[in-house]
Amino acid sequence: MQKFYVTTPIYYVNARPHLGSLYSTLLADVASRYNKLHNKNVFFLTGTDEHGQKIAQSAAAVGKKPQDFVDSFIPAFKDAWKLYNIDYTKFIRTTDSDHIQAVQAWIKRLIDKGDIYKSHYAGYYCVSCEAFVTDKDMPHGITENIPLCPTCGRTTEYVSEESYFFKLSSYQERLLQFYKDNPDFITPRERMAEVISFVQSGLKDLSISRTTIDWGIPFPGDKNHVTYVWADALNNYITGVGYGVPGKEKEFNVWWPADLQILGKDIVRFHAVFWPAFLMASGLPMPKKLLVHGWIKIGEHKMSKSRGNAVDPVELATTYGVDQVRYYLVRHLAITQDSPFTYADLEQRINSDLSHDLGNLLNRTITLALKYNVAMVECPKTWSAESVALYEAGKNITVRFMQEMEAGYMNRAYAVVWEYIHEVNKYFHNQQPWKIAQSESEKFAEVISATCHALYTIAHLSWPLMPQKMEQLLFALGKKINIEQDVFAHLLSVPWKETFSLTQGEILFNKIDIKLETQETVMTQQEVKQSPTIIIDDFTKIELRVGMIEDVQVLEKSDKLYILKVNFGDHGVRQILSGIRKHFTPEQILHRQGVFVYNLAPRKMMGLESQGMMLFAKDAQEQLVLIQPEHTIPNGTQLS
After folding, report:
1. Residue 337 included in any domain
2. SS (H, E, C) 169-190
3. Are residues 397 and 417 in contact, defined by beta-carbon separation less than 8 angstroms?
4. What gap in Å lies between CA 618 and CA 606, rounded to an integer?
């Protein structure tokens, strides 16, 4: 079997896990399950980073010893990951004895090699980020002559102490050559450009020990020092699969290098510069890919425990459902940029994407089939042109889905899946099986079979994202997931020939009762703003049509506008400029149906012609909400 090794960052244990740590872990779980569908042998490593000054200070603040303090948080992480069906192979802790001994042995080897030496450090240090601030970081801000951390913006503190250093500077040219030879090492590519710029500006040797703290791995051969956090934490990726552990050499050689390492953009420097240099010094291969995602934002700020705006993933799952939250985070948060999180958008996506687009499709199919006594669904002897087109579309979608997943763009991969869901809904609507159930029984059976085959494909593509719900969907079709084969090879090579045994089970996705909370406002009659009235002749002049957004481009000269390509079916494709960039990422509106003013006179905006207007509403938090049909209808349909 082929192997696949995926890692998450290891998380600080000074608080319970929040939505940001769940997001990284979900991306890894989706990647892990996707590769299991390829019949690969998978190792999925996650865990906790438990040493350093920040942990020691947090423990002291609550009157606990550091070890007792970190131990108290482990159940919260493991329970949350269990709740979300995170199917990891190993949960590593940097306080594990195997990890400690392996890190000490690694340091000894690099000392003997001449890559680690003792000297003196003087400079500014960020406790929160566990990072030293270099001269080139100084332009990021200064408060009372003290530099701010370029990552978190907090005030740093001046540190002067004896330290052991790793000869990072001697690996500058090797790193630059590695980036040149491996342009796809970091996804997205703009993160690679940032890393190259940082390295080209010059690397200084890296302090890897501290004398002023005692909560860390004892530095080998020098009792006055403890290992500084990044020389400790980064090595978890190799110690977790056996590096430096007696008797596990064979296991390590099987799994390393990692195929995919997932992390947030705030720690990309450590993983794309320090970590490869450590590996070069150790004579070990580089990881194949770093997937670097943006931040989840609440309003204008990054979600963080220290800011107090963190969302509890356990509470979220209890309120909305595990797979519903998994879907929203992976499908609607963009890998390439920071993404806003709002409860209103989560609720809307559950209702529109999950309940309406997918859940309703399954329910309509099974209800209709059972109503006309078609519980056992056989393949027809021949397929109609429309059904063949749906089959071919499924194969095309599967290929595109795989391409996006292999590139690391999971949100785009599932946007592709939802394209197919819309196509299946369109097929079902156009065939109108409810009208031919009695008069054309063979045609009726064909439509039911084609829709079930399409749902079978959708369920397999979506299983990495929503394992529980997709197993429920497959059970309703009389099927189950089979990872003993390459599922994708099966979907692409085998023509439709399945027999389905239909069961009417529980509703796949229940709709959320959306209640927009508003503050009570007392207004006098005089304060109420009256809208001007119009007559019916004015209203009938407005032509409102449903269109599908087929492409979204950022208008670089504007911080508000997107260039939309909107398909109005028989009425053509139009270019519409919409000032919604601050409210939606491109992925959040791509392939969605909306309502447009179709007969609005074209006008120039930023040198481009806009040929219509898209309609939105505002919720109580002033967030835009997409106006869309209750279910997929033909593009170009006029509202009446």
Report:
1. no
2. HHHHHHHHHHHHHCCCCEECHH
3. yes
4. 25
* 513 CB-near residues (< 8 Å, 6+ apart): none
Q: Which amino acid is at 98?
A: D
Name the residue among 530, 400, 382, 394 with its Cα closest to residue 445.
Answer: 382
Angle, CA 478 vertex, CA 472 and CA 479 arms, to 5°: 70
Domain of residue 348 covers: 342-501
Residue 578 falls inside a structural domain: yes
Q: Are 125 and 159 in contact (CB under 8 A)?
A: yes
- Is 539 exposed, middle or buried, given 0-12, 13-18 or 19+ CB atoms closer than 10 A? exposed
CA distances to 406, 418, 454, 550, 588 from 412, in Å: 11, 10, 20, 13, 10
Express each pLDDT in 481-509 by its tens digit: 988 899 999 999 989 999 999 999 999 99
495 and 540 in a common domain: no
- Looking up tokens 């090879």 gives 489
The sheet that has 116-126: what strands, in order across it?
Answer: 131-133, 116-126, 157-166, 206-207
> Looking at the structure, do residues 479 and 558 belong to the same domain, yes or no?
no
Per-residue pLDDT at 560: 87
Do 422 and 489 have their domain in common?
yes
Q: Which residue, 501, 533, 568, sits at the end of a domain?
A: 501
Please name the helix (run of DSSP H) or strand (run of DSSP E) that holds residue 69, with its range, or none: helix 66-71
Q: What pLDDT does 555 receive? A: 86
How many Cβ atoms from other residues are within 10 Å of residue 342's Cβ? 16
What's the whole-model pTM score?
0.79
pLDDT 10s digits, 422-444: 999 999 999 999 999 999 999 99
Largest separation between any pair of C-alpha atoms in the chain: 89
**What is the total residue count of the chain?**
640
* Total domain count, the chain: 2
Is residue 482 located within the same domain as residue 552?
no
For 133-165, give the DSSP string.
EPGGGGGG-EETTEEBPTTT--B-EEEEEEEEE
- Is residue 540's pLDDT more than 80? no
Cβ atoms 304, 20 nearer than 8 A: yes
What is the domain-level CATH number for residue 381? 1.10.730.10
The pLDDT of residue 520 = 29
Average pLDDT over residues 606-614: 89
Give just the sign of the alpha carbon dihedral 429, 432, 433, 434.
positive
How far apart, in whole angstroms, are the C-alpha atoms of residue 493 and residue 398?
A: 11
445 shares its domain with 554? no
Q: Mean pLDDT of all residues in the chain?
A: 90
Mean pLDDT across the stretch 94-109? Answer: 97
CATH number of the domain that residue 613 is part of: 2.40.50.140
Where b means 16+ CB within 10 Å and e means fewer, 34-58 reads bbbbbbbebbbbbbbbbbbbbbbeb
- Residue 517 confidence class, pLDDT cut points 50, 70, 90: very low
d(CA 83, CA 380): 42
Is residue 116 within 8 A of residue 105, CB to CB? The reply is no
Question: Please, which residues have CB within 8 angstroms of residue 515's CB and are 6 or more apart in sequence?
Answer: none
Whether residues 375 and 425 fall in one domain? yes
- List, as one string, the DSSP characters of 391-429: HHHHHHHHHHHHHHHHHT-HHHHHHHHHHHHHHHHHHHH
> Residue 340: which H helix or E strand, with range?
strand 339-340
